[in-house]
User: What shape does this take?
Amino acid sequence: MNEKPVNTPTDHHLTNRQNRELKLRSQRSQILKMDSESALDAVLDGPAPATLIQSFPDQDLYFLMHQIGPSDFIPVLSLAASEQWEYILDVEVWDGDRLDTRIMTRAFDLLFKADPERFLRWIIMEKPDYFEFYLSRHMDILIREHDEVPPEDFDDYITMDDKFYFRFPETTKEENPDPDEEMPLSEEVQASELIDAMVRKLADMDLSVFHGLMLETMNVLPAETEEEQFRLKTIRLAEKGFLPFHEAIGIYQPTPLTTLRKRPKTIVFSSDPFDPDLPLPPQCFTQFLAGDDLFVKALALVPADFMLTLESELAALVNKVISADRLKIRDTKNLEKIIRKTTAFLSLGLESMLEKNISLESAADLIQTYYLEDLFRTGSRAGVQLKTAVHNWYRHSFILQQNLPLSFLGETFLGVMGGLLLDRPLYFDNYQTGELYRHFASLSDIQITREAVDRIMGIDRLLARLNPDISSFKKGVLTYKSLILTLWAKDRLGLAPDLSPIDMAAFKPFFTALFTNDPGLKPAASREPDTKLDLTGPKHSSDIRAEDLALWASETIGSELPDPVTDLLRELVNEIREEYATVHPDRIDPRFMPHFLLKRG
Assistant: This one.
Protein backbone atom coordinates (compact mmCIF):
# COMPACT_ATOMS: atom_id res chain seq x y z
CA MET A 1 0.00 0.00 0.00
CA ASN A 2 1.42 3.31 -1.06
CA GLU A 3 1.45 5.97 1.64
CA LYS A 4 0.75 9.57 0.81
CA PRO A 5 3.76 11.81 1.15
CA VAL A 6 3.76 14.12 4.17
CA ASN A 7 3.48 17.78 3.28
CA THR A 8 6.52 19.42 4.86
CA PRO A 9 8.05 22.82 4.21
CA THR A 10 10.70 22.81 1.55
CA ASP A 11 14.26 23.72 2.46
CA HIS A 12 13.70 27.02 0.69
CA HIS A 13 10.70 27.92 2.87
CA LEU A 14 12.48 26.84 6.04
CA THR A 15 15.53 28.91 5.15
CA ASN A 16 13.37 31.97 4.52
CA ARG A 17 11.68 31.60 7.88
CA GLN A 18 15.02 31.16 9.63
CA ASN A 19 16.43 34.24 7.92
CA ARG A 20 13.35 36.20 8.92
CA GLU A 21 13.73 35.17 12.57
CA LEU A 22 17.43 36.00 12.55
CA LYS A 23 16.70 39.43 11.08
CA LEU A 24 14.10 40.13 13.77
CA ARG A 25 16.51 38.84 16.41
CA SER A 26 19.16 41.28 15.19
CA GLN A 27 16.67 44.16 15.32
CA ARG A 28 15.60 43.25 18.85
CA SER A 29 19.21 43.04 20.01
CA GLN A 30 19.96 46.51 18.71
CA ILE A 31 16.80 47.99 20.25
CA LEU A 32 17.59 46.57 23.70
CA LYS A 33 20.95 48.37 23.62
CA MET A 34 19.47 51.78 22.70
CA ASP A 35 18.46 54.57 25.04
CA SER A 36 14.77 54.75 25.90
CA GLU A 37 13.77 57.42 23.35
CA SER A 38 15.66 55.84 20.47
CA ALA A 39 14.34 52.38 21.35
CA LEU A 40 10.72 53.58 21.30
CA ASP A 41 11.20 55.27 17.93
CA ALA A 42 12.90 52.18 16.49
CA VAL A 43 10.01 49.96 17.56
CA LEU A 44 7.15 52.13 16.35
CA ASP A 45 8.69 53.61 13.20
CA GLY A 46 9.64 50.29 11.63
CA PRO A 47 7.94 48.87 8.52
CA ALA A 48 6.00 46.27 10.54
CA PRO A 49 5.89 47.33 14.21
CA ALA A 50 3.30 44.74 15.25
CA THR A 51 5.38 41.89 13.83
CA LEU A 52 8.50 43.20 15.56
CA ILE A 53 6.77 43.76 18.91
CA GLN A 54 5.10 40.35 18.98
CA SER A 55 8.40 38.68 18.09
CA PHE A 56 9.97 39.91 21.35
CA PRO A 57 10.37 37.22 24.00
CA ASP A 58 8.10 38.09 26.91
CA GLN A 59 11.04 38.82 29.20
CA ASP A 60 12.70 41.17 26.71
CA LEU A 61 9.49 43.13 26.15
CA TYR A 62 8.95 43.45 29.91
CA PHE A 63 12.51 44.72 30.38
CA LEU A 64 12.05 47.15 27.48
CA MET A 65 8.82 48.45 29.03
CA HIS A 66 10.60 49.49 32.21
CA GLN A 67 13.58 50.81 30.26
CA ILE A 68 11.34 53.13 28.24
CA GLY A 69 8.77 53.79 30.97
CA PRO A 70 5.33 52.18 31.37
CA SER A 71 3.37 55.30 30.42
CA ASP A 72 5.40 55.94 27.26
CA PHE A 73 5.16 52.25 26.41
CA ILE A 74 1.37 52.26 25.96
CA PRO A 75 1.51 52.48 22.12
CA VAL A 76 3.75 49.41 22.12
CA LEU A 77 1.42 47.52 24.46
CA SER A 78 -1.47 48.19 22.10
CA LEU A 79 0.33 46.08 19.46
CA ALA A 80 1.64 43.40 21.84
CA ALA A 81 0.29 39.84 21.91
CA SER A 82 -2.08 38.69 24.64
CA GLU A 83 0.57 36.26 25.95
CA GLN A 84 2.91 39.23 26.44
CA TRP A 85 0.20 41.05 28.39
CA GLU A 86 -0.28 37.99 30.56
CA TYR A 87 3.44 37.78 31.33
CA ILE A 88 3.44 41.41 32.51
CA LEU A 89 0.60 40.62 34.91
CA ASP A 90 2.29 37.44 36.11
CA VAL A 91 5.53 39.14 37.12
CA GLU A 92 4.11 42.46 38.32
CA VAL A 93 0.97 42.00 40.37
CA TRP A 94 1.98 39.20 42.75
CA ASP A 95 3.44 39.78 46.18
CA GLY A 96 4.61 36.29 47.08
CA ASP A 97 1.49 34.16 46.87
CA ARG A 98 -0.92 37.08 47.23
CA LEU A 99 -2.34 39.38 44.58
CA ASP A 100 -1.51 43.04 45.18
CA THR A 101 -4.61 44.93 44.05
CA ARG A 102 -2.77 48.26 44.07
CA ILE A 103 -0.36 47.06 41.40
CA MET A 104 -3.22 45.32 39.60
CA THR A 105 -4.86 48.74 39.29
CA ARG A 106 -1.76 50.19 37.68
CA ALA A 107 -1.26 47.23 35.34
CA PHE A 108 -4.92 47.14 34.30
CA ASP A 109 -4.84 50.88 33.67
CA LEU A 110 -1.89 50.46 31.29
CA LEU A 111 -3.53 47.70 29.30
CA PHE A 112 -6.94 49.40 29.27
CA LYS A 113 -5.39 52.59 27.88
CA ALA A 114 -3.50 50.54 25.30
CA ASP A 115 -6.66 49.00 23.79
CA PRO A 116 -9.88 49.20 25.86
CA GLU A 117 -12.08 46.83 23.85
CA ARG A 118 -9.40 44.23 23.25
CA PHE A 119 -8.36 44.27 26.90
CA LEU A 120 -11.93 43.73 28.13
CA ARG A 121 -12.59 40.93 25.64
CA TRP A 122 -9.33 39.21 26.58
CA ILE A 123 -9.61 39.53 30.36
CA ILE A 124 -13.25 38.36 30.42
CA MET A 125 -12.79 35.46 28.02
CA GLU A 126 -9.34 34.26 29.12
CA LYS A 127 -9.09 35.33 32.77
CA PRO A 128 -12.64 35.88 34.09
CA ASP A 129 -11.95 34.67 37.66
CA TYR A 130 -8.86 36.88 37.81
CA PHE A 131 -10.85 39.96 36.76
CA GLU A 132 -13.79 39.16 39.02
CA PHE A 133 -11.44 38.79 42.01
CA TYR A 134 -10.09 42.29 41.37
CA LEU A 135 -13.55 43.79 41.02
CA SER A 136 -14.80 42.07 44.18
CA ARG A 137 -12.00 43.71 46.20
CA HIS A 138 -13.16 47.20 45.21
CA MET A 139 -16.92 47.01 44.55
CA ASP A 140 -20.16 46.46 46.40
CA ILE A 141 -22.80 45.14 43.97
CA LEU A 142 -26.55 45.12 44.51
CA ILE A 143 -29.33 43.67 42.34
CA ARG A 144 -32.55 45.62 42.72
CA GLU A 145 -35.90 44.30 41.67
CA HIS A 146 -38.37 46.76 40.21
CA ASP A 147 -40.65 46.64 43.28
CA GLU A 148 -37.83 46.58 45.86
CA VAL A 149 -37.47 49.46 48.30
CA PRO A 150 -34.09 51.20 47.88
CA PRO A 151 -31.69 51.03 50.87
CA GLU A 152 -30.91 54.13 52.94
CA ASP A 153 -27.52 54.68 51.28
CA PHE A 154 -28.92 54.08 47.79
CA ASP A 155 -27.56 57.41 46.53
CA ASP A 156 -23.99 56.06 46.77
CA TYR A 157 -24.69 53.39 44.12
CA ILE A 158 -24.17 53.73 40.36
CA THR A 159 -26.36 52.02 37.77
CA MET A 160 -26.60 51.88 34.00
CA ASP A 161 -29.72 49.71 33.60
CA ASP A 162 -31.70 50.21 36.84
CA LYS A 163 -30.98 46.55 37.60
CA PHE A 164 -27.39 46.17 38.75
CA TYR A 165 -26.13 48.78 41.17
CA PHE A 166 -22.53 49.12 42.32
CA ARG A 167 -20.47 51.44 44.47
CA PHE A 168 -16.88 51.85 45.68
CA PRO A 169 -16.72 51.78 49.47
CA GLU A 170 -13.07 52.90 49.52
CA THR A 171 -12.52 56.03 47.46
CA THR A 172 -9.16 57.07 48.91
CA LYS A 173 -6.49 57.64 46.33
CA GLU A 174 -4.05 54.76 46.03
CA GLU A 175 -0.49 55.76 46.68
CA ASN A 176 2.81 54.40 45.46
CA PRO A 177 5.11 54.83 48.47
CA ASP A 178 8.02 52.77 47.17
CA PRO A 179 8.71 53.09 43.43
CA ASP A 180 11.25 50.26 43.62
CA GLU A 181 8.60 47.80 44.77
CA GLU A 182 5.60 48.91 42.76
CA MET A 183 4.96 49.42 39.05
CA PRO A 184 5.85 53.11 38.67
CA LEU A 185 3.52 55.32 36.63
CA SER A 186 3.65 59.02 35.90
CA GLU A 187 0.12 59.55 37.27
CA GLU A 188 -1.57 58.02 40.26
CA VAL A 189 -4.46 55.76 39.37
CA GLN A 190 -7.60 55.48 41.47
CA ALA A 191 -9.26 52.07 41.34
CA SER A 192 -12.79 53.48 41.42
CA GLU A 193 -12.15 55.67 38.37
CA LEU A 194 -10.57 52.82 36.42
CA ILE A 195 -13.32 50.32 37.26
CA ASP A 196 -16.06 52.82 36.45
CA ALA A 197 -14.50 53.45 33.02
CA MET A 198 -14.08 49.72 32.35
CA VAL A 199 -17.60 48.66 33.30
CA ARG A 200 -19.17 51.52 31.34
CA LYS A 201 -17.13 50.53 28.30
CA LEU A 202 -18.19 46.91 28.77
CA ALA A 203 -21.85 47.89 29.04
CA ASP A 204 -21.57 49.80 25.77
CA MET A 205 -19.94 46.79 24.13
CA ASP A 206 -22.41 44.14 25.36
CA LEU A 207 -24.91 44.73 28.17
CA SER A 208 -25.55 41.01 28.69
CA VAL A 209 -21.84 40.37 29.28
CA PHE A 210 -21.85 43.23 31.77
CA HIS A 211 -24.78 41.60 33.59
CA GLY A 212 -22.98 38.27 33.70
CA LEU A 213 -19.79 39.86 35.02
CA MET A 214 -21.63 41.67 37.80
CA LEU A 215 -23.54 38.53 38.80
CA GLU A 216 -20.40 36.38 38.93
CA THR A 217 -18.43 39.05 40.80
CA MET A 218 -21.02 38.95 43.56
CA ASN A 219 -20.34 35.23 44.08
CA VAL A 220 -16.54 35.17 43.94
CA LEU A 221 -14.75 33.11 46.61
CA PRO A 222 -11.61 35.24 47.06
CA ALA A 223 -9.36 32.70 48.79
CA GLU A 224 -10.10 29.88 46.35
CA THR A 225 -9.81 32.18 43.33
CA GLU A 226 -6.49 33.61 44.46
CA GLU A 227 -5.08 30.14 45.16
CA GLU A 228 -6.06 28.85 41.72
CA GLN A 229 -4.68 31.92 39.96
CA PHE A 230 -1.41 31.50 41.84
CA ARG A 231 -1.19 27.88 40.71
CA LEU A 232 -1.75 28.84 37.07
CA LYS A 233 0.73 31.71 37.29
CA THR A 234 3.36 29.41 38.78
CA ILE A 235 2.96 26.96 35.91
CA ARG A 236 3.27 29.68 33.27
CA LEU A 237 6.39 31.20 34.81
CA ALA A 238 7.99 27.80 35.39
CA GLU A 239 7.87 27.25 31.64
CA LYS A 240 10.11 30.32 31.28
CA GLY A 241 12.55 29.22 33.97
CA PHE A 242 10.99 31.10 36.91
CA LEU A 243 10.53 28.17 39.26
CA PRO A 244 8.73 28.54 42.60
CA PHE A 245 11.05 29.71 45.36
CA HIS A 246 11.16 26.34 47.13
CA GLU A 247 12.39 24.74 43.89
CA ALA A 248 14.56 27.57 42.59
CA ILE A 249 16.53 27.75 45.84
CA GLY A 250 18.07 24.41 44.89
CA ILE A 251 20.29 26.27 42.42
CA TYR A 252 22.56 27.07 45.36
CA GLN A 253 22.77 23.44 46.47
CA PRO A 254 26.50 22.49 46.33
CA THR A 255 27.28 19.78 43.80
CA PRO A 256 30.25 17.39 44.21
CA LEU A 257 32.43 17.17 41.12
CA THR A 258 31.72 13.44 40.83
CA THR A 259 27.99 14.02 40.25
CA LEU A 260 28.21 16.56 37.40
CA ARG A 261 26.09 15.70 34.38
CA LYS A 262 27.68 15.70 30.94
CA ARG A 263 25.85 16.97 27.89
CA PRO A 264 24.85 14.38 25.29
CA LYS A 265 27.35 14.47 22.45
CA THR A 266 24.54 14.85 19.92
CA ILE A 267 23.70 18.21 21.48
CA VAL A 268 27.24 19.46 21.70
CA PHE A 269 28.22 18.65 18.15
CA SER A 270 24.86 19.25 16.47
CA SER A 271 24.94 21.87 13.75
CA ASP A 272 21.29 21.53 12.72
CA PRO A 273 19.55 24.87 12.04
CA PHE A 274 17.19 26.10 14.74
CA ASP A 275 13.47 25.49 14.48
CA PRO A 276 11.75 28.83 13.71
CA ASP A 277 8.57 27.55 15.39
CA LEU A 278 10.37 27.42 18.75
CA PRO A 279 10.81 30.67 20.69
CA LEU A 280 14.31 32.12 20.79
CA PRO A 281 15.88 32.90 24.19
CA PRO A 282 15.68 36.40 25.70
CA GLN A 283 18.48 38.75 24.67
CA CYS A 284 18.30 41.26 27.51
CA PHE A 285 20.98 39.20 29.31
CA THR A 286 23.59 38.95 26.59
CA GLN A 287 24.38 42.69 26.45
CA PHE A 288 25.78 42.45 29.99
CA LEU A 289 28.08 39.49 29.34
CA ALA A 290 31.27 41.50 29.71
CA GLY A 291 34.19 41.71 32.08
CA ASP A 292 37.26 39.77 33.12
CA ASP A 293 35.47 36.69 34.43
CA LEU A 294 36.83 33.37 33.22
CA PHE A 295 33.37 32.34 32.01
CA VAL A 296 32.87 35.49 29.94
CA LYS A 297 36.30 35.22 28.34
CA ALA A 298 35.83 31.52 27.58
CA LEU A 299 32.55 32.22 25.76
CA ALA A 300 34.55 33.81 22.94
CA LEU A 301 36.01 30.37 22.19
CA VAL A 302 32.67 28.53 22.13
CA PRO A 303 31.56 27.56 18.58
CA ALA A 304 28.91 29.84 17.11
CA ASP A 305 26.52 26.97 16.33
CA PHE A 306 26.45 26.09 20.02
CA MET A 307 25.84 29.63 21.29
CA LEU A 308 22.07 29.59 20.70
CA THR A 309 21.71 26.52 22.93
CA LEU A 310 23.98 28.13 25.48
CA GLU A 311 22.00 31.39 25.49
CA SER A 312 18.78 29.47 26.20
CA GLU A 313 20.47 27.62 29.03
CA LEU A 314 21.96 30.81 30.47
CA ALA A 315 18.56 32.55 30.36
CA ALA A 316 16.96 29.66 32.25
CA LEU A 317 19.77 29.74 34.81
CA VAL A 318 19.47 33.50 35.36
CA ASN A 319 15.72 33.17 35.80
CA LYS A 320 16.24 30.49 38.45
CA VAL A 321 18.61 32.80 40.31
CA ILE A 322 16.06 35.62 40.09
CA SER A 323 13.37 33.32 41.52
CA ALA A 324 15.67 32.00 44.26
CA ASP A 325 16.58 35.56 45.30
CA ARG A 326 12.94 36.71 45.03
CA LEU A 327 13.81 39.66 42.82
CA LYS A 328 11.88 41.76 40.34
CA ILE A 329 14.21 42.90 37.59
CA ARG A 330 12.94 46.15 36.12
CA ASP A 331 15.99 48.22 35.29
CA THR A 332 19.40 47.90 33.72
CA LYS A 333 21.28 48.23 37.01
CA ASN A 334 19.55 45.29 38.70
CA LEU A 335 19.73 43.14 35.57
CA GLU A 336 23.45 43.79 35.22
CA LYS A 337 23.93 42.94 38.88
CA ILE A 338 22.23 39.55 38.59
CA ILE A 339 24.23 38.76 35.42
CA ARG A 340 27.50 39.57 37.20
CA LYS A 341 26.48 37.31 40.04
CA THR A 342 25.67 34.42 37.71
CA THR A 343 28.89 34.74 35.72
CA ALA A 344 30.90 35.02 38.96
CA PHE A 345 29.50 31.69 40.19
CA LEU A 346 30.10 30.09 36.80
CA SER A 347 33.70 31.36 36.71
CA LEU A 348 34.35 30.07 40.21
CA GLY A 349 32.87 26.71 39.21
CA LEU A 350 35.17 26.52 36.19
CA GLU A 351 38.24 27.38 38.27
CA SER A 352 37.27 24.84 40.93
CA MET A 353 37.17 22.11 38.28
CA LEU A 354 40.35 23.19 36.51
CA GLU A 355 42.29 23.95 39.73
CA LYS A 356 45.91 24.67 38.68
CA ASN A 357 45.42 24.03 34.95
CA ILE A 358 43.36 27.14 34.24
CA SER A 359 43.18 28.27 30.62
CA LEU A 360 40.51 29.75 28.37
CA GLU A 361 40.61 26.71 26.07
CA SER A 362 40.03 24.29 28.98
CA ALA A 363 37.23 26.49 30.35
CA ALA A 364 35.52 26.57 26.93
CA ASP A 365 35.72 22.77 26.76
CA LEU A 366 34.06 22.47 30.20
CA ILE A 367 31.27 24.84 29.14
CA GLN A 368 30.53 22.58 26.18
CA THR A 369 30.84 19.41 28.27
CA TYR A 370 28.78 20.23 31.37
CA TYR A 371 25.47 21.98 31.95
CA LEU A 372 25.70 25.57 33.17
CA GLU A 373 23.45 24.78 36.13
CA ASP A 374 25.96 22.21 37.41
CA LEU A 375 28.86 24.61 36.88
CA PHE A 376 26.92 27.22 38.87
CA ARG A 377 26.36 24.78 41.73
CA THR A 378 30.04 23.87 41.68
CA GLY A 379 30.88 27.54 42.14
CA SER A 380 28.34 27.78 44.94
CA ARG A 381 30.01 24.80 46.61
CA ALA A 382 33.30 26.63 47.19
CA GLY A 383 31.65 29.53 49.03
CA VAL A 384 29.23 27.34 50.98
CA GLN A 385 32.03 25.10 52.24
CA LEU A 386 33.87 28.13 53.60
CA LYS A 387 30.68 29.53 55.12
CA THR A 388 29.88 26.18 56.78
CA ALA A 389 33.35 25.93 58.30
CA VAL A 390 33.07 29.46 59.72
CA HIS A 391 29.53 28.87 61.01
CA ASN A 392 30.52 25.64 62.79
CA TRP A 393 33.55 27.32 64.38
CA TYR A 394 31.66 30.45 65.42
CA ARG A 395 29.05 28.49 67.39
CA HIS A 396 31.78 27.32 69.80
CA SER A 397 34.13 30.30 69.55
CA PHE A 398 35.56 32.29 72.46
CA ILE A 399 34.08 35.43 70.90
CA LEU A 400 30.52 34.09 71.02
CA GLN A 401 30.93 32.53 74.46
CA GLN A 402 32.03 35.91 75.85
CA ASN A 403 29.17 37.70 74.02
CA LEU A 404 31.64 39.87 72.15
CA PRO A 405 30.33 41.65 69.00
CA LEU A 406 31.89 40.95 65.62
CA SER A 407 33.31 44.48 65.73
CA PHE A 408 35.74 43.04 68.31
CA LEU A 409 37.62 41.57 65.34
CA GLY A 410 38.40 44.96 63.82
CA GLU A 411 37.24 46.47 60.56
CA THR A 412 38.85 44.03 58.12
CA PHE A 413 38.03 40.80 59.94
CA LEU A 414 34.53 42.14 60.70
CA GLY A 415 34.03 42.58 56.95
CA VAL A 416 35.23 39.05 56.22
CA MET A 417 33.00 37.51 58.89
CA GLY A 418 30.04 39.68 57.91
CA GLY A 419 30.21 38.38 54.35
CA LEU A 420 30.54 34.73 55.34
CA LEU A 421 27.70 34.72 57.86
CA LEU A 422 25.13 35.85 55.27
CA ASP A 423 22.69 33.35 53.78
CA ARG A 424 24.57 33.79 50.50
CA PRO A 425 28.25 34.19 51.44
CA LEU A 426 29.98 37.19 49.88
CA TYR A 427 33.59 38.21 49.36
CA PHE A 428 34.74 41.24 51.37
CA ASP A 429 36.22 43.36 48.59
CA ASN A 430 36.49 46.55 50.66
CA TYR A 431 35.99 48.73 47.55
CA GLN A 432 39.01 47.31 45.71
CA THR A 433 36.76 47.03 42.64
CA GLY A 434 34.23 49.65 43.72
CA GLU A 435 32.07 47.46 45.99
CA LEU A 436 32.18 46.66 49.70
CA TYR A 437 30.98 43.10 49.05
CA ARG A 438 30.76 41.10 45.87
CA HIS A 439 30.28 37.47 44.95
CA PHE A 440 33.20 35.05 44.97
CA ALA A 441 34.46 34.94 41.38
CA SER A 442 37.75 33.05 41.53
CA LEU A 443 39.80 30.65 43.61
CA SER A 444 42.01 33.57 44.64
CA ASP A 445 38.95 35.13 46.35
CA ILE A 446 38.38 31.87 48.19
CA GLN A 447 42.07 31.59 49.14
CA ILE A 448 42.30 35.17 50.42
CA THR A 449 39.17 34.70 52.51
CA ARG A 450 40.36 31.33 53.82
CA GLU A 451 43.65 32.87 54.95
CA ALA A 452 41.76 35.62 56.76
CA VAL A 453 39.52 32.99 58.40
CA ASP A 454 42.59 31.01 59.52
CA ARG A 455 43.89 34.15 61.22
CA ILE A 456 40.54 34.84 62.88
CA MET A 457 40.32 31.30 64.20
CA GLY A 458 43.94 31.45 65.36
CA ILE A 459 43.33 34.66 67.28
CA ASP A 460 40.19 33.17 68.81
CA ARG A 461 42.11 30.10 70.00
CA LEU A 462 44.85 32.31 71.41
CA LEU A 463 42.33 34.39 73.34
CA ALA A 464 40.65 31.25 74.65
CA ARG A 465 44.06 30.08 75.97
CA LEU A 466 44.85 33.49 77.43
CA ASN A 467 41.40 33.47 79.07
CA PRO A 468 41.25 37.21 79.85
CA ASP A 469 38.72 38.57 82.33
CA ILE A 470 36.34 40.35 79.94
CA SER A 471 34.27 41.64 82.86
CA SER A 472 37.24 43.82 83.90
CA PHE A 473 36.82 45.93 80.75
CA LYS A 474 35.03 49.16 81.63
CA LYS A 475 36.18 51.95 79.32
CA GLY A 476 37.63 52.37 75.85
CA VAL A 477 37.26 50.43 72.62
CA LEU A 478 37.76 46.70 73.04
CA THR A 479 39.07 44.84 70.02
CA TYR A 480 41.34 41.83 69.76
CA LYS A 481 44.18 44.30 69.12
CA SER A 482 43.61 46.42 72.22
CA LEU A 483 43.03 43.28 74.31
CA ILE A 484 46.26 41.53 73.29
CA LEU A 485 48.44 44.64 73.33
CA THR A 486 47.10 45.81 76.69
CA LEU A 487 47.75 42.42 78.32
CA TRP A 488 51.23 42.38 76.79
CA ALA A 489 52.00 45.87 78.06
CA LYS A 490 50.71 45.07 81.55
CA ASP A 491 52.80 41.91 81.70
CA ARG A 492 55.98 43.79 80.76
CA LEU A 493 55.12 46.57 83.23
CA GLY A 494 54.39 44.12 86.02
CA LEU A 495 50.73 45.16 86.31
CA ALA A 496 47.68 43.01 86.99
CA PRO A 497 46.62 41.00 83.88
CA ASP A 498 43.18 42.54 83.51
CA LEU A 499 41.54 44.93 81.05
CA SER A 500 41.37 48.02 83.24
CA PRO A 501 42.96 51.08 81.61
CA ILE A 502 46.70 51.60 82.06
CA ASP A 503 47.75 54.76 83.86
CA MET A 504 49.58 57.13 81.52
CA ALA A 505 52.53 57.54 83.92
CA ALA A 506 53.07 53.78 83.87
CA PHE A 507 52.52 53.46 80.11
CA LYS A 508 55.07 56.08 78.95
CA PRO A 509 58.17 53.93 79.73
CA PHE A 510 56.63 51.03 77.79
CA PHE A 511 55.78 53.31 74.89
CA THR A 512 59.33 54.68 74.94
CA ALA A 513 60.76 51.15 74.84
CA LEU A 514 58.52 50.20 71.92
CA PHE A 515 60.51 52.38 69.56
CA THR A 516 63.99 51.87 71.00
CA ASN A 517 66.23 50.38 68.32
CA ASP A 518 69.59 48.73 68.77
CA PRO A 519 71.73 49.95 71.71
CA GLY A 520 73.39 52.66 69.62
CA LEU A 521 70.10 54.48 69.04
CA LYS A 522 68.55 57.02 71.39
CA PRO A 523 65.30 56.09 73.10
CA ALA A 524 62.19 58.08 72.25
CA ALA A 525 62.21 59.93 75.60
CA SER A 526 65.62 61.47 74.85
CA ARG A 527 64.54 62.89 71.48
CA GLU A 528 63.09 66.30 70.79
CA PRO A 529 59.29 66.18 70.29
CA ASP A 530 59.48 66.77 66.52
CA THR A 531 62.41 64.40 65.84
CA LYS A 532 61.57 61.23 63.89
CA LEU A 533 62.95 57.79 64.68
CA ASP A 534 65.45 56.08 62.42
CA LEU A 535 63.73 52.85 61.44
CA THR A 536 66.04 51.81 58.63
CA GLY A 537 68.50 49.66 60.55
CA PRO A 538 69.11 45.98 59.81
CA LYS A 539 66.83 44.99 62.66
CA HIS A 540 64.81 47.88 64.02
CA SER A 541 62.65 47.94 67.13
CA SER A 542 59.49 46.59 65.42
CA ASP A 543 61.25 43.28 64.74
CA ILE A 544 62.44 43.07 68.33
CA ARG A 545 59.01 43.96 69.76
CA ALA A 546 57.24 41.55 67.40
CA GLU A 547 59.45 38.76 68.69
CA ASP A 548 58.79 39.87 72.25
CA LEU A 549 55.00 39.97 71.69
CA ALA A 550 55.06 36.50 70.18
CA LEU A 551 57.29 35.27 73.02
CA TRP A 552 54.91 36.65 75.64
CA ALA A 553 51.89 35.03 73.96
CA SER A 554 53.73 31.72 73.60
CA GLU A 555 54.87 31.71 77.24
CA THR A 556 51.42 32.65 78.50
CA ILE A 557 49.61 29.81 76.73
CA GLY A 558 52.45 27.36 77.20
CA SER A 559 52.91 26.34 73.57
CA GLU A 560 54.22 27.64 70.27
CA LEU A 561 52.04 29.88 68.15
CA PRO A 562 50.82 28.77 64.72
CA ASP A 563 52.30 30.66 61.77
CA PRO A 564 49.13 32.65 60.93
CA VAL A 565 49.00 34.04 64.49
CA THR A 566 52.74 34.82 64.54
CA ASP A 567 52.42 36.69 61.26
CA LEU A 568 49.40 38.59 62.55
CA LEU A 569 51.23 39.67 65.71
CA ARG A 570 54.16 40.86 63.61
CA GLU A 571 51.81 42.91 61.44
CA LEU A 572 50.21 44.30 64.58
CA VAL A 573 53.56 45.60 65.85
CA ASN A 574 54.31 47.07 62.42
CA GLU A 575 50.94 48.78 62.52
CA ILE A 576 51.85 50.36 65.86
CA ARG A 577 55.16 51.55 64.43
CA GLU A 578 53.45 53.16 61.43
CA GLU A 579 50.85 54.86 63.61
CA TYR A 580 52.87 56.06 66.60
CA ALA A 581 56.61 55.96 65.80
CA THR A 582 56.74 59.74 65.32
CA VAL A 583 54.70 60.53 68.45
CA HIS A 584 56.65 61.86 71.44
CA PRO A 585 55.76 60.20 74.77
CA ASP A 586 54.73 63.59 76.22
CA ARG A 587 52.19 64.05 73.44
CA ILE A 588 50.32 60.77 73.82
CA ASP A 589 46.55 61.24 73.79
CA PRO A 590 44.53 58.15 74.90
CA ARG A 591 41.64 59.28 72.69
CA PHE A 592 43.73 58.68 69.57
CA MET A 593 45.40 55.41 70.62
CA PRO A 594 42.77 52.69 70.14
CA HIS A 595 45.45 49.96 70.15
CA PHE A 596 45.82 50.22 73.95
CA LEU A 597 43.37 50.66 76.80
CA LEU A 598 44.68 53.82 78.47
CA LYS A 599 43.33 55.89 81.33
CA ARG A 600 42.32 59.38 80.35
CA GLY A 601 43.58 62.21 82.46
Observations:
- The CA atoms of residues 474 and 500 lie 7 Å apart.
- The longest helix spans residues 372-395.
